[in-house]
Design brief:
secreted; four-stranded parallel sheet; Pectin_lyase_fold/virulence; hydrolase; 20-stranded parallel sheet; Glyco_hydro_28; Pectin_lyas_fold; 4 helices; globular
Length: 475
């Protein structure tokens, strides 16, 4: 009886929404008869954004339609959950918030266009682990697709597109016209059991995908593209998250392709939530001014147990980069990278303890980061300007660095000294060109010395279901 009552409420809400439509004849959009997708969970109820007055003409604002649709569908969250279908068309919208036990599905010809009306972007407080906005001391605009304190959320499609129309934001940022930090495309906070998959993300105003204070997260089959000179258009930034898998993604942007974070200086130390149990697999990256995988610089809550493999970097500034500084505190430890292929790079490896950007002047100068257990193995690179730049902190060296079975082909105009090392400790084995004296060569006998864990992380046990939609199943 309870299930029937919930369904009746949902039907009433849908009828009201349909009754209030204006100019319905001019807004007809073809909703697909059926489709399938892989999801962490399937849904019992479905609706289209057109059922709530959505107009896919690229000019009409759909912010209220998206929020009304999601609010109505939230009524059946505990009765099998719901999915909202975005059909072919260009759907202009500002920020909207998701609900639990919910799937947002974008048709292959659907494009979400981020609004350029600042009134459609609520302002939020800074993240507690950051203490301020990253662009400005004040708050931040809510992301285009936002959610907090949710469980069981899927954002997916048949490679549908989310276009952040970032040029508007980048120009205003460069000219100092924004009082708040630019929005991300997707941000989910304090949430659990999340899937973001099979989408194309274009021209984000800022970071593209930002799960924060969350756990059990799958990011799969995402294509991310932004101009290589666009500011801070990081690809995927797991931030104070646990049990995350990022795989089969292509990222071409103006900043780090994957940036692993956990809070900034004294705020991150106080919040104390690390990013850990992270898998990065089958990633292709193009970013001439940044890293394929960056650890930090905001790492004050700690980063540990990161496993990256089968990575390709092309025209990218560095392959793996660790960014930290005096005042950060926290740690980066138990990092494992293998089978990485790099083509036309400035640095293959870069670690720095001199990344001096701070949230404010109140950081603790005695808060020294711990960097240890960094393992790189089975890698090749070509056309590289500098093999490695490894700069620890005086009195606080980076320890337990292990690099084995790595061949770096230097560029015709490469630096005469391929390795620069200060305040680091560790070993190498079968590395060419030969590493610095602080990482002594142990010979071929130690070629397997650098660890890569064999046991699975819990996220590997998640099995996707084959989910489907058919028109006659609309609520």
């Amino acid at each position: 009886m309870e299930s029937m009552r919930i369904q009746i409420i949902a039907v009433i809400g849908l009828v009201i929404a349909l009754t209030n439509l204006r100019g319905a004849e001019s807004r007809k959009v073809t909703v697909p008869d059926s489709f399938e997708y892989n999801g962490i969970n399937c849904r019992a109820h479905s609706a289209s954004i057109t059922d709530f007055g959505g107009v896919g003409d690229g000019q009409t604002s759909n912010t209220k339609a998206f929020q009304e649709a999601i609010n109505n569908l939230s009524r059946v969250a505990k009765d099998g959950g719901s999915q909202l279908i975005v059909p072919a068309g260009k759907w202009l919208t500002g920020s909207f918030s998701l609900t639990s036990h919910f799937t947002l599905y974008l048709h292959k010809d659907a494009v979400l266009l981020a609004s350029q009306d600042l009134n459609e972007w609520p302002v939020m407080k800074p993240l507690p682990s950051y203490g301020r906005g990253r662009d400005a001391p004040a708050g931040r605009y809510a992301s285009l697709i936002f959610g907090s304190n949710l469980t069981d959320v899927i954002i997916t499609g048949d490679n549908g597109t989310i276009d952040g129309q970032g040029e508007f934001w980048w120009q205003n940022f460069h000219k100092g016209r924004l009082k708040y930090t630019r929005p991300y495309l997707i941000e989910l906070m304090y949430s659990d059991n999340l899937q973001i998959s099979s989408l194309t993300l274009l021209n984000s105003p800022n970071w593209n995908v930002h799960p924060v204070y969350s756990s059990n997260i799958l990011v799969q089959g995402i294509t991310i593209i932004a101009p290589i000179k666009s500011p801070n258009t990081d690809g995927i930034n797991p931030d104070s998250c646990t049990n995350v898998k990022i795989e089969d993604c292509y990222i071409e942007s103006g900043d780090d392709c994957v940036a692993v974070k956990s809070g900034w200086d004294e705020y991150g130390i106080a919040f104390g939530m690390p990013t850990k149990q992270l898998i990065i697999r089958r990633l292709t990256c193009v970013s001439p001014t940044s890293a394929t995988i960056a650890l930090g610089s905001e790492m004050s809550g700690g980063i540990e147990d990161v496993r990256a493999e089968d990575i390709t970097a092309i025209h990218t500034e560095s392959g793996v980069r660790i960014k930290t500084a005096v005042g950060r505190g926290g740690y980066v430890k138990d990092i494992y990278v293998r089978r990485m292929s790099m083509h036309t790079m400035k640095w293959a490896f870069w670690m720095t303890g001199n990344y001096g950007s701070h949230a404010d002047k109140n950081y603790d100068p005695n808060a020294l980061p711990v960097i240890q257990g960094i393992n790189y193995r089975d890698m090749v690179a070509e056309n590289v300007s500098i093999a490695a730049r490894l700069e620890g902190i005086s009195g606080d060296p980076f320890k337990e660095i292990c690099i084995s079975n790595v061949t770096i082909g230097m560029a015709a105009k490469a630096k005469k000294v391929p390795w620069t090392c200060t305040d680091v400790e560790g070993i190498t084995s079968v590395v060419s060109p030969r590493a610095c004296d602080l990482l002594p060569d142990q010979g071929p006998a130690k070629i397997t010395a650098c660890d890569f864990p064999t046991e699975d992380l819990p996220i590997e046990s998640v099995k996707l279901q084959k989910c489907s939609y058919r028109r006659n199943l609309l609520v």
